[in-house]
Design a protein that fits this description.
about 190 residues; alpha+beta; Alpha-Beta Plaits; 6-stranded antiparallel beta sheet; 6 strands
């Protein structure tokens, strides 16, 4: 970054660090202690919709990689599209298999990045729930290298529980690199598992 960039307020984007996904299992312990949320076993990678043979080949490679794991519950990876036109690769595990779910998310992200689909990657998330049935996602922003909580309010359409999100932010500040710009805490309506 040069002097002109500094004077004009330009910054270099943060390089994605997919290894930050591996911080989720320890953050889950803090999340359960602070707010009573436990993993559901559902996680997903969101990306701008891609069509073509190259993406189909990448999807088959990811599917084959995750199919090789015999310790999985449900289908290895499911490809879905939401109402907003984004695609999701969804992985489901048993709730106590969060480390394996994180491995799945990392493998999907890495495969897409290696095969040239990095610019289409938007976020990854893992879904949590509490005893009252409320859902919460910890969302990793691929292009920012940061996390944020997303807590939709059940039965209210597209409204979110901002107070819960801020409590989770405070509880996980030592465990995850939390996105400080609240304007980047994008709602992920229609995300799998929520």
């Amino acid at each position: 970054m040069g002097l002109l960039d500094i004077l004009l307020g330009r910054t270099k984007p943060v390089a994605p660090n997919l290894d930050q996904l591996f911080a989720l299992p320890s953050a889950a312990v803090a999340l359960e202690a602070a707010a009573g949320f436990t993993p559901t076993g559902c996680g997903a990678v969101c990306f701008a919709t891609v069509e073509g043979a190259a993406f189909e080949q990448t999807h088959r490679e990811v599917q084959a990689l995750l199919d090789a794991d015999t310790d999985r519950t449900g289908p290895p990876v499911e490809l879905r599209q939401d109402d907003y036109g984004y695609s999701w690769l969804v992985s489901r595990r048993a709730p106590d298999q969060l480390p394996q779910l994180v491995n799945d998310l990392h493998a999907v992200n890495s495969s897409m990045e290696v095969n040239g689909f990095g610019p289409q990657l938007l976020c990854s998330l893992a879904v949590f729930t509490d005893d009252a049935g409320r859902k919460l996602a910890l969302v990793y922003l691929y292009k920012r290298g940061t996390y944020y909580p997303f807590a939709p309010l059940p039965g209210t359409g597209e409204r979110r529980d901002n107070a819960l999100e801020l409590r989770v932010k405070a509880a996980l500040a030592d465990d995850l690199r939390i996105e400080q710009d609240l304007g980047r805490w994008f709602p992920v309506w229609g995300a799998p598992g929520l």
